[in-house]
Structure formats: structure tokens, C-alpha cells
Amino acid sequence: MDRQQEFVLRTVEERDIRFIRLWFTDVLGVLKSVAVAPAELESAFSEGIGFDGSAIEGLTRVFEADMVAKPDPTTFQVLPWRGERHGTGRMFCDILTPDGQPSLADSRNVLKRTLAKASDRGFTFYTHPEVEFYLFNQLTKSDSKLEPVDQGGYFDHLARGSTHDFRRAAITMLESMGISVEFSHHEAGPGQNEIDLRYADALTTADNLMTFRTVVKEVALEQGVFASFMPKPLADQPGSGMHTHVSLFEDDRNAFYEPGAQFELSKTARQFIAGLMVHAGEITAVTNQYVNSYKRLWGGQEAPSYVSWGHNNRSALVRVPMYKPGKGNSARIEYRALDSAANPYLAFAVILAAGLKGIEEGYDLLDHTEDDVWELTSAERRALGIAPLPRDLDEAIQFMEKSELVAETLGEHVFDYFLRNKREEWEAYSAQVTQFELKRFLQL
Amino acid sequence: MQSRRPETLTTHLIRAGLADLTRSASLWRDPDLVAVLDNRPRGSAGADRGPGPDRGAVILEPAATALLRTLATVADPDLALLQLVRLAAAAPDRLRPVLAVPDGGAPGTRDADTRGDADGKAPDEDEPPRPTARERLLRVLGASSALGDELVRHPALLDLISDSTPGTGVPAAQVRAELLRAVDADPDAADPVAGTLASSGSGPGSGTVPSGGDRSPSYTDRLRRAYRARLLRIAATDVTAPEPTAVLPAVAAALADLAAAALEAALAVARSEEEDHGAGVRLAVLGMGKTGGHELNYISDVDVVYVAEPGLLPDGAPACDEDEALRVAARLAGRLAQVCSGASAEPALWQVDAALRPEGKQGPLVRTLASHVAYYERWAVTWEFQALLKARPVAGDLALGEAYCAAVGPLVWQAVERPNFVEDARAMRKRVEDNVPVAEADRQIKLGKGGLRDVEFTVQLLQLVHGRADEDIRSRTTLDALAALSRGGYVGRDHARRMGECYRFLRALEHRIQLFRLRRTHLMPTDEGDLRRLARGLGQGGADDLVKTWRSVRREVRDLHEAVYYRPLLPATALLSTGEASLAPRAAMARFAATGYRDPAGAMRHVQALTDGVSRRAAIQRQLLPVLLGWFAEGADPDEGLLAFRKLSDTLGSTHWYLRLLRDSAEAASRLAQVLSSSRYLADAIGRSPESVRWLAESESLTPRGVRRLASEADALLGRAQEVDAATVALRALRRRELARTGVGEVLGALGPVDAARAISDAADVVLAGGLRIAEHEARADRQVARGDEPARLLIVAMGRLGGQEMGYGSDADVMFVYEAVGGAPDKEANDYALAVAKNLRRILSAVGPEPGLPVDADLRPEGRNGPLVRSFESYVEYYSRWSSPWEAQALLRARALSGTLSVVAAGGPDEGAVEASLSDGDPVPGGGASVPPVSAAPVDGDETGSELDLGPGAAGGRSLGARFTALIDPLRYPEGGPDAAVLREVRRIKARVESERLPRGADPARHLKLGRGGVADVEWTVQLLQLQHAFEVPGLRTTGTVAALKAARDAGLLSDDDAEVLLEAWRLASRLRSAIVLWSGRTTGSGVDQLPHDSHALTGIARLMGDVGTGPELEELYLRVSRRARAVMERVFYGAE
Predict the structure, then answer these.
(1) d(C-alpha A193, C-alpha A131), whole Å
(2) For A383-425, how does the pLDDT look when each residue is reduced to its tens digit (9 = 90+)?
(3) Beta carbons within 8 Å of B1029's beta carbon, 6+ residues apart
């Protein structure tokens, strides 16, 4: 038994933990959980916990229903909202096939594989997500109107604002679970908040994001409100994005940093951005996976609709933040398309893969854009070589279908499942008759 | 005559083996050296030495003569002379007594010159004489430039050279005490600490560091110097040994003891830097690898594992808590490694490598005993147990170390029962062989095939397999373990002895290479001088001889693995010589199981049956089997392989050529093993046509026969036949044999998928043509019609994959029948006759029989199953003029006129009972016009053999029936201007419907090789659509072959290069997979044959059979990817989707 596992067993013993939840994520990024008693933990470590994978989205083919969840002891945490006494702990799991091979359907494994590929080239991939979400008053009925908990705006400080309490409670809870929060504030929309997680390697960040969503929902419930990571819940208000800062390190040297170069960006960084520019359309179905995601992408405000990059240009898909002198290791770029409802494992994997492709193939980077891309005419954009992101999920699917990069990154199984699932979603969505249509056309 | 003449210096030098004469002559005259030899102070000598090398004779002083004689025996005389000159300059007074000859009365040197040391022929004595100090010095100087440099740096070491006590065989405790005293630690203390013993100065012990006059060196440096002093003694004993391979075990053991002592002394230094000297912490250092095995190299990483516990106070309570103990212990361990290998004034000893610990480099450096045990009980993988086999307490708290061994030892011996042991062992063995950089593969002494690791691996594997039941074979030392395995009857005595010899040779070689510069290397040098030194040092003659010996040893090691591992699996009754071992049944079961045989008892029965008795067959099989057992074990299914071999031997064992072939052709035997253990289909096929074993010996037998040869063989066969049933069986057997030939060719990688498909189709062509002859014979017999008086002649039109000459092992023969009345026979009569012949043909080829049938499927005929089985040519004309349904036109793209009624060669009636006629008529169109092109429907790649079987159907109207039929359908399948839009739409619609309807229920479209996404059908429909559209303008498209049509479409620009490549790759991969599934499973029908299996066992077997597609999961990923791409191209090109 390794040290980490011993540590977990000891903690469970010492803190009198009665349940351990084993967490894993389905292909769509939905958290799944199975609880085991402490007595089962040792065998969970050595053999894993068997379960029927066919019941879970995209996890397996029916032929291989038996799957094994094997907990990763380095991810052990006590769940603070379950109380101090008789507590509950949780660990993330890797999904294995019955003969012990990593499952091709496990999205955590997809990210691990991609990280391993980066590691073969000497890179470590760090991410730093800024997660936005809305707080609403509890819904009484499923069709009642959404009421944000406040009417604040960007960085507003609200007197007696319930969102203060909320953020304080959420951050305390996150910190108690070992997840560092960089900062938090009220966002532009009413009831909209942003919490930024400190940068960490991509696998840790992705695990943290899964925890984060759970914590935020738990805390909201405790406070009698309701938290939503839906990309665009209110038509006339900004959507909830998850701008993510990314960087590559070679050992402890930031590979994106080159003093004296334009924006202090190294060749590696430029090629990485170029990779994102070339493949942005293909990866959008993964980074923005729901029909609703495109309401945010094309709804103006802070969301990027066009494939461009720039220095502190808030309309660009990739933004290069202002360089802080003397902080070479904080050199990074910000990918702004991601939304808060993405499966972080798959999203980070495709972003990394696109960037790596740029480095491998030595893509050239077009000039950065200083203009506000939304203000340009479409002819101007065309002249500048600025392409739009997919307009809707359907278009994103069509981009993705043709992408060898995404297929290779996700693996044929996840790729196929994901596309099938998204086509179904698009079809179901297309069959809807919306309020908009009724309002406009009923009189015809 | 020469001996009487006074000799020049050059002659002397040449005789002493010096290579660079100019330089050595000047070295020889070096004043410092001369002064030492002449026993005079420097400056008063040298000028009066004889003239130059070539100018005259020199008379040598006795000291000089003795020196030259000794030089002649060293590995590198030039180097030795050079170092000697440096020593003469650095320390003439210490050097003088070493070089002195006895009559000079040199003190301390035993008189040995009287025994004529130079040629090494000692007079018989009770005990071999010890080498003189001069010999010891010069041999060391000539073998190791590093030790020579060390001597020059610390000339005091020369005193050690004078001491003739052997460096090997010294008790470990003595070496330990020596090194501990060097750091002023008390060897008798429970936990020695450096600096606690009153400094002993140069000390009384003979091995203590001679003080070089330096100012108090650090303990680290004192340790390192003491280490090297001891190393020098060991090396001196090693290089003066008469038989390098004989002294090797003692040298390796002495080196291991020295390393253990150094670890202990380094720990003492580490303790001295702790405030309380690390009291209260028990730390044990376990040697792993060669250190643990008590068989160390001169220079290699010293592998260790640390165990620590809190010490106990007198009252039994722990002295500190566990975390504290682990912290202190980790600090001690870290410091220990630094003392051994960190930077300091004296060069480092070696790396201390703790990577074999639980969790490797990620794991904590030090663990408690309980933590170690818990890890090994739960987490360790097989190779970690193999590593544990070597664990031995070498320093620190030995009682704790023993406790560790006692706790983890039992786990080592249970490793063989772990579920993945076989796969792990196989993977480990592969790693042993593969983990060699290509550039070094040819120079590696340690890794790679036939290297040291190979021997060690074999021995350890045998220990793991049998050590569970037998404690006597658990030695950590390779050579001891080998001897014990031999004593215990697990390995034949002769094989064990030979393996031991190889091991000693390789180790001695490795030692001498490392000794030269004291560098860690396992590579054979390439430099001529280096090789010469090695060869002389090892008594191997010249460089070429050494390399030759080395190569033959490597070869022998490779062969010995099989002999040692598999040979004892033969039953006792099979033994020929007394030097061989035979395992007891339980041990044999264990070994079979550990090799990958799922049914060891069954395997033993087969081996018993194969080797029992005194027959010549049994004798040869006793020789063959051990190797074959190993080869079977490498295949996908060892049990099947062995079973098939037994069946084959039961059938063939007594034939004169069978065993001789296998015995004399290693290649044939290895191919047979590969085929039998990877393909059930072929195991069965070879069992039925045993003569096919012969093909394995000659590669040309594996190339397809070609339709021409097959046709003449069928012709001869039918010509000889006396009755219908026998003729049928013979004909089918011919096809079965060709299927086997093709399969063997594919499995052995001699045949690509396209050629294989062609070969299978050719065999089908021949069988159809031959079958038709038999069918006609029957019809004539029923009607009492004489040959030549038939009312109709019949044409077989090949369709589908047969038409495309792309059949698989399980394909049916798709055909249509066309007849034509002859001799003015009424249509009714002609039709009756033709129908009878067609029915006969289907029966003959499809009926259940002793040989595999070829189902004849006529569903592609006009009106499908509802239409008449045979139609007259006129009827086809009329039908096609009225109907031109798109699917029929498409089906006709693959139509290939195959064969018609044979021209009558010999008049013969039914009464003769002979089916005879020439199948291979030279002229395909009797009476036909010369202008008529061959009727064959565009054979693939323009090979004219396709015409061979167009055996001249009726030639009415100046053209054969085949030619006329082809001319009839060409306008349909290659419509001028391409099909109109409605037809295109219809073709696409049919395809779309087929996709949803034809797929078997529950089949995953992504995995169905024929009808699934990007499968065979997708590619073929795409190609066929292009043919329908463009064949009228692109002649290359007028072919029945998918590959040929694809290439033609690409060349004509109808497909981009990329698209064509994607489609081709998908079609080839799917076709190969379909073949591989049949070959692997042995099943030609059933729902499984067209689907990529889910089951990982099957996937792995198929991947292994295909050879170049990676592992099972990789094959799966590959197919899914390739077919997805093909589907994308297909949707674009076929459906016109953008």
C-alpha cells in the first residue's frame, strides 16, 4: 500500500468517517457518485469497485457493461457540508475495464492521455479557470420565472448582499477541501458571481472544477438559493463563461515566456495560440457542448464569437493578458470560449491538443487584432482572416465530425459517443416550439 | 640462429608484446625508470645505456629482463610501461623493491622468479604459487588505466601491491572493519559512528589507507581511499589469476562485500553528522540486484532499499514515534548516498540507487517494515517480486534487515500464483530483449538477446516458478542458483554447466571492460587497441578471436534458454542422456502454467504421448519439442498449438520426410509453431493436408500457384478420375489445399491481402470449371447423350467477390448461368439440360462431404430468387433490353465470364465412366475470330491469367458465348454518358436502405466489417458508383476489381489522392480483418465472422496474428479510426453530401 492510501485509511479511522463517496465523471461532464463504507475502502484501493457502466452516459458499450472504479487516493477530501461528526469523504476514480486497462470511455483518462502526450514532449500543462455562475431564488415550480438573488453588477459591493455570505461560505468550504481560490466577485449579471481557482496542473484543476460545482450547489442550497452553471440562463444578461488561463511549463520554466519578445510571448506560446486559432472551430462542440452554449457565444457581451487573438482585447477568442514585469512564470494565455457547463476533462484535453498541434506542426500565427471584432463588418473580418466560431451546436458538430485532432484526442469511442449524443440533443432541440415562436407567429 | 645473435632493443620490445615501438623505446630509456631498474639514484644513469633501438644489440640487466618478461604477460604492455615510467618518476624508492629481482635481495618479496613466471608454467606444488609483486603491479597497470592513475596519485598503495595476500576470499567482517576504521568508527559497536574511535593514523590493519601525507582528509575521502585500496587488492588478484572465469565468482563476491562495507562506513559517516548519532532509529540497508546477489561488478549502481523502525528503549517502549524515526532515517539514507557518490576531493564510488523501493522514485525513501509488507501484499507487480528475490541485508541494523527478508521472502515465492504472472513474465522477457538502443544492440554485453540479463532472467524465472515448492533453489547468487537448479533436477546438468560457463565468460568480459577506466559500461568496445587488451587479459588470443568467442557465447545463451527452460518438460521416459533433467509432475505443471499453457495437465499428456517410446519419431520429437514448446508459448494460443502439433504428428510422424524436415529446418519448425498456435483454421487445414507442412520449408511454396497451374492440375485430376464422387472430393480437396496455402502465406506475412484474395478466387474459378465438367458428365449420363451431342452449352458468369477476384476464406461463389442451345436443339430441351447441369453443379460443390464445399449462390441473377436459375442468352438479351434496374447494372460491374461448355477433346460417353476432357484448352475460342479479345472481364492488374479459364464456350457468330455476354452487358454497366439522375438516386437510396436493413440485429455499425460504417460495402459501393458514372470514358474503370477500379478512379482524377488512400486503407484493413477472424477462430460462417470482436482475448489473438497492428485495443482503435475516415469520404463521394 502506498503512503497516500495509508493516509486515507488513517484519516478515515481518525475522523470517524462513515461514508466515502467515489466520484467519477461521465462523458458529458456530469458527476457520478457511489458511496462505500470504510470497510470496503481497502479492497476499493486494491481491486476497485465494480459497477454496471452501461447505465451511465457514454461510459461503455453495452457489451462491456462491467466497469471498475478505482479511487485515486491523492484526491481524498472530507466533504465539509456533511458535518464534522460521522463525516463523508470523497475521492475521484479512474475507470478501468474488468481486466484492469484504463477505460477508453473515461473522460479523466482522456485528459490523462493527452497530458502524457504533452509530458513526452517535456511539457506540463497548467490551467486557471474563472468560473461564472448565477444564483437564483429557489424555484417553486418548474415553469416559474427565474429570479436572480440580487440586482448587482460587475464588482458591485452590495450591502447586506446575500451573495457575500454565499461567496464567503463557498470559498471557506472550497479552501477546507484544499482548493485554493484566487479571487471572487460579483459579475456583470444580476445574481451572477465569479470565483477564480488558483492555477494548478490541468488534471487537478479539472478535478477541482467538479468539486467546485458540487460545493457551490451545496452552499446555495444551505442558503436557500439555487446555483446554476447553465451557459446562458437569462436572454438579456451575460452568460456564464469559464475563461481559462493556460500555460505550458518545461520543468519549472514557463515555456510561454520570452523576455523581450512581442507581449513577452515565446515561439512556443505563439505556436500554441496558432494551434488554437486553426482548430478552434473543431473543438467548440467540446468546449461549448450544449445548444444553450451558443446563446452565450453569440449573445454579445464578454463572449468571443470570432476566432482571433489579441493583447488585452476582450473581444478576442484568445487574450494575452498584460505582462506583469518580473513575473515570467505567470506568462499565460486566456481561452475565452469555454463555458461553465463544459466537461473540464475533455475541454482541457482538446485545448491542450490543439495547442500542441500548433507546436508540432509549427503553425504560423496571424497578426493579433486590436479592433473590437464585434464592431467590424463581415467584409472587414473576412479581409483580416477572422472566421466565426460555429453558430450553433449543429454547426459545431459538423466541424467536430471532420476533426482528426478531436477524434485522436478523445479516442474513437468517446468521439463517437459524444457526437451521437450531441446530434440527439440538436434534434430534440430543433423539435421545440419556443415562447419566441408562439409570441411572434401565433397570430399568423 | 637468431637466438645466438645478440638482440636489438626492438626485438626485445616486440617479444614483450609492445605495439608502439618508437614510443616504448623512448619510455624504456626513460632516466627515471632506468634509475629504478639499475638501483641507482636518478641522474647517474641513462647516458650509458645501449645504443638506439635499431642500431645495435643490447644486453639487458637481469632486472630489465625480468621486467620485459613480465610485460609480455600483461593485457596492455604499452600502457603498463607508460604507467611504470610515471610511477618511477613519482615514487622511485617505493617502486624499486617491487621490481627487484631476488638476487638483489629485495625485502618483502617472495622469491618466485625461480618458477619461471613468464610463461606461467609453474612446477607442481601443493598450492599454486602466488604471483610476484612485479607481476601484480604490471598486470594491474596493463589492465586498468584508472588504477594506474590511482597508484601514481597515491604511491603508498605500492605497499599493498607488495603484499601478496589474495584480495578475494577475505571475510566480509574484515573488510567491513577495515573501512569502518578508515573513518574512525568502531567496528564492534552496534551502530558504528565515524569519528568515535581514536584516530588510528595509518593504522595497524594491512588494508588501511596508507597515509599520503595529506592534511587530514574528510571522512568521505578517507572512506573512498580505503575503498580503492581494497579495490586494488581485488583487482590485483583478479588480473593475476591464471583463469579469469574461474576466479570470477570470488571477485564478484569480494566486490559485493566491499560495497557492503562502504555502505556501512558511509552510514557511520552519516550518523556522525546527526546530533545524537541517530540513536533511537533502527535503519537497515538491503542490497538488491547484484549487491544483494553477492555478485557485484567493478562499477555499477549499487541498488538498495531502506527499512527503518523506531529503536526500543530498555523498557521495551519505542524510543521515538514512527514519523520521527522515518524522518531521521531518510536523512541518514540521503547522506549515505552523498558520501558514496557526491562530489568530493576523491572520485565518487558509484551511484546508490534506491529506485527499486516500493513506488519507485515517487515513493518515500524509507519505510517501516509494516509499510513494506503492506505494499508488497497489495500493490507490487510481478517484476518487483523478481527484484525482491535478491534482497539481502548488507548494512545498518542487520536484525531488522533479516526481519525484512523473513517478512517479504514468502511473498516472493507466491508471486507465481499471481493472476497476471504469465503475461507479466512474457512482457518482462520482451523488455529484456527490446530495451536496447538500436545503435548499441550489437555491442551490448548485458542486455539484448544472448546477454547477461538473459541468463539472469532465465535463472530467476525458474526460481520463481519452482522456488515456491523447493527451498533449496532460492539462492540469491546467479551461479549458485543455477547449480542448485541443476542439483534439484530442474535443469539438465550439461545445460546448467554450459550456461554457467557462458555467464562467467560474459561477466569476466564485462569486468575487464569496466576495470580499464573504472567506468560503468556494458558495451563491447570497438577500438582495436581496447579489444586487443581485453583479448590478452582474458587469454583469448587476438581481438578477432575474442569477438568470435563472444558472438558464439551470445548465440549459445540464446539457445540455452530454450534448452534450460523447456527441455526438462519432457517426461523422464523420454530422456536420452544422464546429463538431462526431467521435472517431477508437479514441477512440470508449474512450469507449463508459468509459460502460458492454460491446461498444464493436457500439455503434459501431449508431450508424454509425443516423446514416449523408442521409435525414431519419438527420438526426433524429443529433440524438437523443447524449442517448439517455447514457440507455441509465444503464439496466441499455446494449448491449441501443442494439440494441433500432436495431431499432426500422429498423422505424419511415420512419414519419412516430416520429422526430418522439422529437425533440419529450424525455419520450418518455427513457422509451423507460429501457424499452429495462432490460427485454428490453419491448424485444422494443415491437419487435413499434412503435405502442406513442406511448404513451410520453402518460401516459394507459399506463393500462390496461379490459375494456370491449378487448372492443369485439375485437368489431370479429372482426367484420372474413375467416378463422380471421387472426382468431386479430389476437386474440393484441391481448393482446400490452396486455401491452406494462402492462409499460411498470410499468417507468415508472405502474402498481402490483395494477393491472398486473388489466390482464393483463383482456386474457386478452377473448382467451378472442374465442377461444371463433372456436372455435365452427370447430365450426359442421365440423358444418355454422348459427349459433343449436348443440346446446350453453359456459361458461368462470376459475380460479386468471385467476379472481383476478391474472395475471402468463407466467401460463397456468386454466379449466374447462361446457356445457349446448340445443334438446333429445341429450347425446351436445351433449357432442361442446362438447368440439370446447373443444379448438378450446385449440388456437387455445396453438398456436405469430407472436403469443404463451395456454396454456389445465384441470387444475383435477373429477378433474383424468383427468376429462373438458368436463362438462355436470348432471354438475357430480351431481359436486359426491357429491364435495366439500377441494382442489376451495379451487380453486373463485377460480372466476369468464367467458363463455358468445354470443347470436346476425346469422344466419350457416359459408359466410359471417365470424366475427361482438356480443361486447359490452348485456344479459348475454337473457330473464333482472331479479332475477338479475351472474354475475361478485365482481370486485375492486366494479368492475362484471367483468360485462362475462359475455356471456349460456344463460338456461334464468330464469338464465344462469354464474349457475347460481355458485349451484351457492357452497355448496361458502363452506360454511355453515365446513368441518368434517377438511376443515381435509386442506387443511393438502395444503399441507404441496405445500411439500415441488412445489418444483423444488435450489430454495432461501427464494428461490422462488411456492412458497417466505413466497411467493405461502403468502399465498394463508392467505387461502383464511380464506375457506373465514368467507365464509359475511363477505360481503366472497366474492371471487376475494387482495388484496380479505385486506382483507376484516382488516376483519372475522379478521386483525390487522399480520398483514394483513405478508401483503400479501409478496404484493405477490413478485408484483412475478415480473413484474420476466420483464420484465428477457425469459423467461416456465423454472425461473428464479419464483426470486430469485443472480447479482448479474441482481439489480442487477431492482432497478434495480423502482426503489424499493435495490441488488441490498438487494433480496435485503428479500425474505428480508419473506417470513420472512410465513411466520411464515402458520404461525400457516394451520397454527394458536403
Answers:
(1) 8
(2) 888 899 999 999 999 999 999 999 999 999 899 889 999 999 9
(3) B978, B979, B984
Question: Would an 8 Å CB–CB cutoff place B1121 in contact with chain A?
Answer: yes
- Low-confidence spans in chain B with pLDDT less than 70: 1-6, 39-58, 102-129, 199-215, 432-435, 572-579, 884, 899-959, 1138
Q: For the stretch B173-212, what's the b/e string if a residue is b when 16 or more beta carbons lie within 10 angstroms of its beta carbon? A: eebbbbbbbbbbbbbeeebbbbbebeeeeebeeebbbbee
Please give the grid coordinates belonging to residue B1040.
471487376
> Distance between terminal CA atoms of chain B?
100
Per-residue confidence (pLDDT) for residue B111, from 0 to 100: 42
Tell me which DSSP letter residue A102 carries. B
End-to-end CA distance of chain A: 72
Describe the crossing of helices B133-143 and B145-153 by its angle, rounded to 10 degrees. 120
Q: What is the chain A residue with the closest CA to B365?
A: A3
3-state secondary structure B982-1002: HHHHHHHHHHHHHHHHCCCCC
pLDDT single digits (tens) B171-187: 999 999 999 999 999 99
- In terms of residues, how long is chain B? 1138
Measured CA to CA in angstroms, residue A264 lies from A81, A249, A322, B276 at distances of 44, 15, 10, 53
CB contact under 8 A, B1128 and A401: yes
Q: Judged by CB atoms within 8 Å, which residues 389-418 of A form the interface with B?
A: 401-402, 404, 407-408, 411-413, 415-416
- CB of B951 within 8 A of CB of B757? no
The three cell numbers of residue B249 are 565468482
Closest by CA position to B257, among listed B265, B247, B268, B246: B265
Query: Is the ipTM beyond the 0.85 threshold?
Result: no
- Residue identified by cell 626513460 is B30
Percent helix / strand / coil, chain B, rounded to 5: 60, 5, 35
Please report the pLDDT score of residue B963 as a whole number: 86
Answer positive or negative: Cα dihedral of B183, B186, B187, B193: negative
pLDDT bin (cut points 50, 70, 90) of residue A376 is confident
Whether B292 and B391 have beta carbons less than 8 Å apart is answered as yes
The three-state secondary structure class of A31 is: strand
Nearest in space to B568 (alpha carbons), one of B584, B544, B545, B556: B584
Cβ of A2 within 8 Å of Cβ of B379? The answer is yes
- For residue B501, the model assigns a pLDDT of 94
Please check whether residue A45 touches B, CB under 8 A: yes
**Cell numbers placing B934:** 479475351
Record: contact A1-B359, CB cut-off 8 A: no
A239 vs A304: CA distance, rounded Å: 11
pLDDT at B63: 80
Closest residue by Cα to residue A199 from A234, A249, A262, A255: A249
Mutation target to probe the A interface, by most A beta carbons within 10 A, among B376, B382, B420, B1124 is B1124
Q: CA B206 to CA B539: how far, in whole Å?
A: 31
Give the number of A-B residue pairs with CB atoms closer than 8 Å.
49
With cell 545463451, the residue in question is B557
pLDDT of residue A212: 93
User: Beta-carbon neighbour count of residue A130 at 10 Å?
Assistant: 21
Q: Which helix (H) or strand (E) holds B530?
A: helix B528-537
Q: Indicate the average pLDDT of chain A.
A: 87
Question: Which chain A residues are closer than 8 Å to B379 by Cβ?
Answer: 1-2, 46
Tell me if residue B5 falls in helix, strand or coil: coil
Q: What's the pLDDT score for residue A138?
A: 84
Alpha carbon separation from B806 to A340, B122, B734, B1061, B1072 (Å, rounded): 53, 79, 19, 18, 11
The answer for A 271-300 residues in CB contact with B (under 8 A) is: none
DSSP state of B476: S
